[in-house]
Amino acid sequence: MTEVKEYPVAQGLKVKITIEDNPFRIEPDSLFKMAARINKKRSFLFVSPVLGKHLPVNPSVSLLIGRALALVYSGQIEQYQEQIREVLNEPTMRKNFNIEHMKDAVITLDRPITVIGFCETATALGQAFFESFASPARYIHTTRELIDREAILSFEEEHSHATAHRVYAEDPDFFKDDTEVVLVDDEVTTGKTNLNIIRDIIRMFPQKKKFTIVSILDWRSRENQQAFRELEQELGIQINEVSLLKGTVEEIGRIEALKEDSLITDKESAAFMLQKPFKKKLPRLSYSLAPVEVGEKIEIPAYLTATGRFGLAERQYEEEQLIQIGAQLKSLRQEGSALVLGTGEFMYLPMRIASLMGENVLFHTTTRSPILSRNQLNYPIFNKREFPSPEQSGVTNYVYGIPREKGYQDIFVLFERIADRESLSELNRTLKTIQDAEIYFVDLASRAAYRSVIGGIK
Q1: Which of 37, 86, 192, 410 has minimal CB crowding within 10 Å?
Q2: What string of DSSP letters covers 352-376?
Q3: CATH number for 424
């Protein structure tokens, strides 16, 4: 049974959504919000309230979305269908849900699988999907970062603002078997990115014959779907598709007027210093690429193994260390609400740590995506802040939706590594404009946490 809904996007433009498949019977508004953008190809954008990228969310709900996709993929939704529907559709249930309530909902398959998450938005979604399986599985995510080693895959995301994707694997044999490849993304609009990576996988590893596309939203047109069937015939492969919501999209009208009116450009002018709240370092996490240390200073920060950027073959990798980090950061919290910010592609570990920091914690991340911000009722993107990335010199990042006042008592920004201290200062200056919030920066590579304090430079 189809469902048709219309959404206003901006003056003069509406979007008509026709829902064709909804296995959990989730309210569409629970899975996406509509934002406008200035783009010749498409004037609107689906913004996810469950992904933990642009909008704040209970981190356990984001982890649940990965579990829900795994249940649909495996055909095992019946036992958990009602519970997942209630959590996603009911605001109170969504606010109070803890992923530990579904710790027994692990899935056993009769075959191993290889899971790939797409950067930057679906790195955590892909890992949450991977963590749902008790049977043998491997996980890796694509990256836009240039790393000093040979990529085993490279392809283009044609519609993106940063198009080049690469895959680096610690194990050179990561793809050298015939296991099914599961590609996980938050949204499939045309499917061209999936077709591009499948072509590159087949070019490098022709023994791969079975693929599944897993997404929260699948908006491919009939023509786009036919392109998948044609690639199957061309390459002699099988491609399946799984989603939480499948349908089609139609633009009605054109945007008549649009301007960005919720951009925050002011910054705290006072000098600040960073104080360490812990005498001991945070628990040690494993490195995929070891840091280069000069004396006690890390000159070239490390990449962490547990992100999956270089491949994981073990579920709940270093979970005990994450629990300890969550407990230490929880001890810094004041009474009230807290925000945990991940950074760019570094999503899953901060999301999991946030879920271990107690109640009334929300999570989202910084992003490369420049989305139009507006000071308009019910418009999802507002309070846009722009700053250079402390993890990648020369890359502009954004963060959205953090209130100036009466919002969070504590804000924790979690980094895989800090490579540019001056960029960290820029991020600090824009966050210090948030009234009454304590700001903490957590560098997991160097195992240090810092509290931002006005009063000097150290």
Answers
A1: 86
A2: HHHTTS-SSEEEEE-BS--------
A3: 3.40.50
- Give CA–CA dist 352/357, Å, rounded: 9
Asked whether 372 and 382 are in contact (CB, 8 A), the reply is no
Mark 431-455 as b/e (b = at least 16 C-beta within 10 Å): bbbbeebbbbbbbbbbebbbbbeee
Q: Where are the beta strands (DSSP E) in 151-196?
A: 153-156, 164-167, 180-188
Could you tell me if 428 and 420 are in contact, meaning their C-beta atoms sit under 8 angstroms apart?
no
Residues facing residue 165 across a β-bridge = 155
Q: Range of 103's domain?
A: 3-253
Cα separation, 243 vs 21, in Å, equals 8
- Give whole-number Cα distances, 359 to 98, 100, 124, 402, in Å: 9, 13, 21, 19
Residues 51 and 174 in one domain: yes
CA 237 – CA 233 distance, rounded (Å) = 7
- The answer to whether the bond into 120 is cis (omega within 30° of 0) is yes
Residue 244 CA to residue 213 CA, distance in Å, equals 12
Residue 34 domain flag: yes
* Residue found by looking up tokens 């230490």 in the block: 328
Phi, psi (degrees; rounded to nearest 5) at 12: 95, -10
| Cα 365 from Cα 360, distance rounded (Å) | 17
Residue 164 lies in a domain: yes
Summarised one tens digit per residue, pLDDT across range 141-199 is 999 888 878 889 887 655 444 468 899 999 989 999 999 999 999 999 999 999 999 99
Within-domain flag for 258: no
Q: Are residues 387 and 270 in the same domain?
A: yes
Number of domains in the chain: 2
What is the CA angle 37-39-42, rounded to 5?
85
For 11-53, how does the pLDDT look when each residue is reduced to its tens digit (9 = 90+)? Answer: 888 999 999 999 999 999 999 999 988 666 778 899 999 999 9
CATH of the domain at 222: 3.40.50.2020
28/45 Cα distance (integer angstroms): 15
> Do the Cβ atoms of 399 and 428 come closer than 8 Å?
no
Return the CA Rg of the chain: 21
Of 207, 222, 253, the residue at which a domain comes to its end is 253
416 contacts 397 by C-beta, under 8 angstroms: no
Tell me how far apart the alpha carbons of residues 225 and 221 are, in angstroms, rounded to a whole number: 6
pTM over 0.90? The answer is: yes
CA 28 to CA 5: how far, in whole Å?
Answer: 9
